[in-house]
Design goal:
- The protein has 159 residues and is α+β, with helices and mostly antiparallel strands.
- The chain has a domain at 67-154: SH3 type barrels, CATH 2.30.30.240.
- It is built from three helices and eight strands.
- The protein has an eight-stranded mixed beta sheet with strand order 1-6-7-2-3-4-5-8.
- A hairpin with a 5-residue loop joins strand 3 (92-101) and strand 4.
- It is elongated and about 100 Å long.
- The relative contact order is 0.13.
């Protein structure tokens, strides 16, 4: 009887060790990154929903963007030509109308065709250092507020 108890105890201990190892492996195994797949969603910190519900028309949040400095954009005149421009609060203020580049082809400044209620029809020139490019959404994100951007505005044809 003693021998059976010893075998049963050893079997139980072995089974417990296997189950614990399997649980540890399941926790440490990482799922493949699907954030860049069309229609993919991801979880934000604290388990909050990012707004994507599996609906193909759901707009990705900023945590899934690919932002970069404008001096890192390859062929900025082409890449940024149709980009929309947002102010620091994320409100669209216009679209790119011209990209000024250096002799080495890096973006130096961006001319924006404004479409805000107070500056529609005007353009504003912003230094490239004041902007980030979100390549996934083809959007320039300014470090400036709408009023700061509009302070640089002029009517078309005005220097």
């Amino acid at each position: 009887m003693n021998h059976r108890n010893t075998i049963a105890s050893a079997s139980l201990a072995a089974l417990t060790a296997v189950l614990l190892a399997a649980a540890a492996m399941a926790q440490s195994t990482t799922a493949p990154n699907t954030n860049n797949l069309p229609g993919a969603t991801h979880q934000t910190p604290m388990g909050q929903d990012n707004g994507a519900t599996g609906n193909a028309s759901a707009t990705p949040q900023s945590s899934s963007t690919q932002e970069m400095a404008l001096n890192k954009v390859q062929d900025p005149k082409t890449a940024l030509a149709s980009a929309k421009v947002e102010d620091s609060s994320g409100q669209t203020v216009g679209t790119v109308s011209k990209v000024d580049t250096s002799k080495t082809g890096k973006a130096e400044s961006i001319e924006i065709a404004l479409n805000t209620p107070t500056a529609t029809g005007k353009t504003a020139k912003i230094k490239a250092s004041q902007l980030q490019y979100d390549s996934m959404n083809n959007t320039l994100k300014a470090k400036l507020s709408q009023s700061q951007i509009e302070a640089n505005a002029s009517s078309p044809g005005t220097p």
